[in-house]
UniProtKB/TrEMBL annotation:
Belongs to the 4-oxalocrotonate tautomerase family. This is 4-oxalocrotonate tautomerase. One of its GO terms (molecular function) is isomerase activity. Keywords: Isomerase. Pfam families: Tautomerase (PF01361). Gene3D superfamilies: Macrophage Migration Inhibitory Factor (3.30.429.10). Residues 2-58 form the 4-oxalocrotonate tautomerase-like domain. PANTHER family: BSL4019 PROTEIN, TAUTOMERASE-RELATED. InterPro entries: 4-OT-like_dom, Tautomerase/MIF_sf. SUPFAM superfamilies: Tautomerase/MIF.
């Protein structure tokens, strides 16, 4: 039962998330040999002010 957590900047549409979840699920089924029903994809939308790389906020 793979649980796949995806963290990304907020603002993606439901259609984009739906398409990405479908692609991730299909890849998991193909590579891991599991059923599609066993794959969970959890999205976490992150504000740019809550994410930093190399010591700099993405919102800066």
């Amino acid at each position: 039962m793979p649980v796949i957590q995806v963290q990304l900047f907020e603002g993606r549409t439901e259609d984009v998330k739906r398409e990405y979840a479908k692609a991730i699920t299909e890849a998991a089924v193909k590579i891991m040999g599991c059923s599609a029903e066993s794959v969970d994809v959890i999205y976490q939308d992150i504000k740019k002010s809550d994410w930093a790389t190399a010591g700099k906020l993405w919102s800066d």
